[in-house]
Design a protein that fits this description.
The complex is a heterodimer of chains A (494) and B (517). Chain A contains 21 helices and no strands. By secondary structure, chain A is an all-alpha fold. In chain A, α2 packs parallel to α5 and α17 crosses α20. The chains are: A mainly alpha (494), B mainly alpha (517).
């Protein structure tokens, strides 16, 4: 089965869900939820049998690539979407308050169908190898998110987030198109492989004057910075994360970011491989990484809202990932390549971050608050949830023996081993280490609330069945991967 | 087999989480750890070393193994120290019923982290296990600590996190420069680091490990932390976990000998800061717990002195006394300080205060406590017959090893001479504290003080027993260093410094003069 059927399957699944929602009876919402989750889980099966599309179709091969990274990021997209849909299921109490008829689930069907389209877009992004297909798939994801972010239409926060996301998203789309136009103008192609050939020719006019190329690249990177949540396009993140329905926040911070990173890797690869552009590209990405690390970690210090804290944490993590990209390394027998480190990081990040968001949904359901103070005394109200939350937060801080350490360890290892060739990387490494030290403070602030503080009330904190199962599995996975990261390496074919 | 040392406390944690009696579980787990540890050390001493370790690959590229085993004699001794102190810590102190799970889980996690770090044969897990203690310590101090517990918890955590991160940078640079794809000590120690990278790596290691060991001037977290933390945590932290830094420096020194010698004078200045500066600070303490905390920081200076001697020699073979000296003193100090913190906790329980101005004359009310405390205090000063004496003598011998009369004093020799004065300082503060607590006119808080119950006495007697045994037969421990896997020490040389025949050597004379004072 050629691999592009996967995206087609997911899109068809989404269309079926919309049809069920539109024409089904009143039980349809329940059905939509189940079909969306089941259908996506089912998609993982053909993924195993998928093969590279036949190359006799040269036009398709220009647009579509199916390699290890494509497979890995498709899996990441599907798993993230399934977990987000599960989270949405437990979040329905809050969601229903702010939709058409408060308290009922009228008009919430699309909330479970639209992520499936976003998933299709992310899967396509993983396989895109042409600036045009990158643009189209990226827009599929972004437009879906415009709707989802503003889904709680009777809540001002969600609407505000939607408008902010729309305006900045449109702006970044503009940057992307403009950047693509410049790249096309100087290289006469939109295909990344051909761009790679065009920019590595030392005798071309481009090598003599690469400024237009870098202008185009910078514009594209700005737009990608919007997707992955990196400075200087990070300003939307805290507000949108805070306002959006929590499952969508989780989706933005995991799925959208992962898809953004695979695109960033694909776009940057030719630029890092060309001797002409390598040093400048390193510098551009390094500056982005440094700024992102500083902004994310330092701004997180003063946060009192857990969702905002996770927003800044997501910026900070983007900074570590960018540091790994800036230390571009093709990989050899003894060490991991940048692709592998980024994949490893994102896989562990997915597990931990989704776990943290699940905990937040549980607390939000019980106390109707996203503030850190809602976690006060969690250790007494629900000890096992508190232990899971502590482990997940420690993992976010990158404490050893949790999955969070693995990603940071290899990001820094990559940066330090590349630093001997490129001294300027030490700057990024230094900022990164300051970031890690700062992050201990803001993650432990939540741990402090959980154990040190007295709870506002001693009310039981019930954990719904799905959430309990998912939180336990994700926590266990966090510890397991901390000891034994090899399975991820198998997935990325290392 | 060695992996059991790690599995036992972790299984204990799970059992407590599943509702078993926390105190009994922790006591059982630490007893099993002690038994396993002694058994392993016995097997090691008999030369049975095969099949004790495991090393499953957890990541194939770069190769990381969950290597758990006894790497060399140093690992064995540090492992013994961990299980001995953990055994005593689990039997010391008490808390409210509500906090019992937290208390015992934290204790087991800290013990697991310490023992895990010492039995790791892979750099990755060597680093990782040490960090296992960070969150439990943070919670224990923050919830159950004394005094300004919240501020102290933050301070300790941020300091330790800072130290760990600097250390991580050093370790990553080390692995990058060594060019190895395997992080196992065995492979790593075979590589050689390019000379231009060595000073940088060494500086990161000194600062990183140094912060964890409370090397001057990164020491200010230590004393308040030990004073504030609940007794088992101070015992494990001051007694065992802190030694991780020194263990790491000794372990990795062969990789960056030139880099380390580049910073020799820096290390010497800092260690003298530890001995003299912190020593004077210690004299001025008004509270018993802060005094002990500071004294523990001060004593790290001596171990660093042995390390400085090793740096100067450049390799273990050049100064075969230095490493055994450091290891023996680490062990002795660990046991002593754990005993002192354990007894201090009991003392506070009995009298309700640790302020030296409110204590006094306690010996007449609590003779057993006074005796045990006095024994530990004497050990801490370095009374012959107890383990610390052997360690300190060896440190001073190491300081003058290879020195030729007439060749002038090197920086290490000068440092050794200065460090000898530290013994006076420690005698001053320890004896003063002892006098103010147990002797003289009765203080305001001693009226209702009861003596130690037999349950309270047991852990202290156990530790005292270890101190005396090791003090009288240091070769029980040092013998473990023989035939180390890494060839780190030579058996014949190890025993030498303990022979009385060495005493006429010119170097120990200042010490003898000191003792006469």
């Amino acid at each position: 089965m050629p691999a592009y059927w996967l995206e087609a399957t997911v899109v068809i699944l989404g269309l079926i869900l919309l049809l069920i929602e539109a024409f089904g009876k009143s039980v349809s919402r329940e059905l939509v939820r189940r079909v969306s989750i089941g259908g996506l889980a089912f998609t993982l099966v053909p993924l195993y049998f998928a093969v590279t599309p036949p190359t006799d179709n040269a036009e398709l091969a220009r647009f579509y690539i199916y390699d290890n990274w494509a497979v890995f990021f498709k899996i990441l997209a599907i798993v993230a979407t399934i977990l987000v849909l599960l989270m949405a299921y437990d979040y329905r109490k809050v969601l229903n308050q702010f939709t058409e008829e408060p308290g009922t689930d009228h008009g919430t069907g699309e909330f479970y169908a639209l992520p499936v389209f976003a998933c299709a877009g992310m899967m396509w992004m993983a396989s895109a190898r042409d600036l045009v297909s990158i643009f189209v798939s990226l827009e599929l994801v972004t437009i879906t998110f415009y709707i989802l972010v503003a889904y709680m239409r009777r809540q001002v926060g969600s609407l505000e987030a939607g408008v902010k996301y729309l305006i900045l998203g449109a702006l970044s789309t503009g940057f992307l198109v403009y950047g693509i136009a410049w790249i096309y103008g100087v290289t006469h192609t939109t295909n990344l492989a051909e761009i790679g050939i065009a920019i590595s020719d030392p005798d071309s006019a481009l090598a003599a004057n690469p400024s237009p190329l870098f202008f185009g690249l910078s514009l594209m990177l700005l737009s990608l910075a919007f997707k992955i949540g990196a400075a200087p396009m990070h300003l939307w993140i805290p507000d949108v994360y805070q306002g959006a329905p929590t499952p969508i926040t989780a989706f933005l911070s995991v799925g959208s970011k992962a898809a953004g990173f695979i695109v960033a890797l694909r776009i940057l690869e030719p630029f890092f491989n060309s001797e002409i552009t390598k040093s400048q590209t390193t510098l551009i990405v390094l500056i982005m990484a440094g700024l992102t690390l500083l902004v994310g970690n330092l701004a997180a210090l003063g946060q009192t809202n857990f969702k905002r804290l996770l927003a800044y944490s997501s910026i900070a993590h983007a900074g570590f990932l960018l540091l790994a990209i800036a230390a571009w390394h093709p990989g050899d027998a003894g060490s991991l390549s940048t692709h592998q480190v980024v994949s490893l990081y994102l896989a562990t990040y997915l597990v931990i971050t989704l776990g943290a968001f699940f905990v937040l949904v549980v607390v939000r359901n019980a106390d109707d608050s996203d503030e850190i103070s809602a976690f006060d005394g969690l250790g007494r109200r629900n000890p096992s949830l508190a232990v899971c939350a502590t482990i997940l937060l420690s993992a976010l801080a990158g404490l050893p023996l949790t999955a969070g350490f693995i990603g940071k360890f290899f990001a820094f290892q990559l940066a330090i081993s590349s630093a001997s060739a490129n001294k300027v990387l030490w700057l990024g490494i230094g900022i990164g280490f300051i970031g890690v030290a700062a992050s201990f403070y803001y993650y432990l602030k939540v741990v402090r609330a959980i154990y040190w503080r007295e709870p506002a009330h001693e009310k039981e904190l019930p954990v719904p069945r799905i959430s309990r199962f998912v939180i336990l599995s994700l926590t266990a996975l966090t510890i397991l991967l901390g000891f034994w990261p090899n399975p991820i390496l198998w997935l990325i074919g290392g | 087999m060695t992996a059991c040392l790690l599995l036992i406390p972790l299984i204990g944690v799970i059992a407590i989480l599943r509702g078993r009696d926390p105190g009994a579980t922790a006591r059982l787990a630490t007893a099993l750890m002690l038994a396993t540890g002694i058994l392993l050390a016995g097997l090691w001493a008999m030369g049975i070393r095969d099949g004790l370790s495991i090393a499953p690959v957890v990541l194939s590229k770069p190769e990381i193994r969950l290597g758990l085993g006894l790497y060399d004699g140093m690992s064995v001794i540090m492992m013994l120290l961990s299980v001995v102190v953990a055994f005593a810590a689990a039997r010391t102190g008490s808390c409210k019923k509500r906090h019992e799970s937290l208390w015992n889980i934290s204790l087991l996690l800290v013990a697991a982290g310490a023992v895990g770090a010492f039995i790791s044969t892979d750099l990755f897990f060597f680093y990782a296990f040490h960090e296992l203690a960070l969150v439990p310590t943070f919670l224990m101090i923050g919830i159950l600590g004394r005094g300004e517990r919240k501020i102290i918890a933050w301070k300790a955590t941020i300091y330790l996190a800072f130290g760990s991160i600097v250390l991580l940078a050093g370790l990553l640079w080390l692995t990058a420069a060594s060019g190895t794809s395997s992080l196992a000590f065995e492979d790593l120690l075979k590589t050689s680091i390019p000379a231009e990278d060595q000073p940088g790596i060494a500086l990161f290691l000194i600062i990183g490990f140094g912060t964890l060991v409370s090397l001057f001037p990164f020491h200010s977290w230590a004393a308040p932390t030990y004073a504030s933390a609940p007794a088992p945590i101070s015992m494990l932290h001051a007694g065992v976990l802190k030694k991780f830094g020194l263990y790491g420096l000794l372990r990795l020194h062969p990789l960056v000998p030139e880099g380390m010698s580049h910073w020799l004078n820096l290390v010497i200045v800092l260690l003298i800061g530890n001995i003299l500066w912190v020593g004077f600070v210690t004299i001025n303490q008004k509270r018993l717990d802060l005094m002990l905390g500071n004294s523990s920081v001060m004593h790290m200076g001596y171990i660093f002195l042995a390390f400085a001697a090793l740096i100067e020699a450049g390799a273990q073979t050049e100064n075969p006394v230095a490493m055994p000296a450091a290891i023996l003193l680490m062990f002795a100090h660990g046991v002593t300080i754990a005993m002192l913190f354990g007894l201090t906790d009991r003392l506070e329980k009995k009298t309700g205060t640790l302020d030296l101005r409110n204590l006094g004359g306690l010996a007449s009310h609590t003779p057993k406590l006074a005796f045990l405390f006095g024994l530990a205090a004497m050990a801490s000063i370095g009374l012959p017959g107890l383990a610390n004496f052997a360690g300190e003598v060896m440190v001073f011998i190491a300081g003058f090893k290879g020195w030729q009369a007439g060749s002038g004093l090197g920086s290490v020799q000068i440092a050794t001479i200065i460090a000898l004065w530290g013994l006076v300082i420690s005698a001053v503060y320890m004896l003063r504290a002892y006098r103010r607590t147990f002797q003289g006119p009765g203080g305001s808080h001693i009226e209702n003080a009861e003596d130690l119950s037999s349950k309270d006495r047991r852990p202290a007697i156990f530790l005292a027993f270890v101190l005396v045994i090791v003090g009288l037969f240091p070769n029980l421990l040092l013998g473990l260093l023989e035939n180390s896997g890494s060839g780190a020490s030579e058996p014949s040389e190890v025993q030498k410094p303990l022979e009385p025949a060495l005493l006429p050597d010119p170097k120990p004379q200042p010490r003898q003069a000191m003792l006469a004072n």
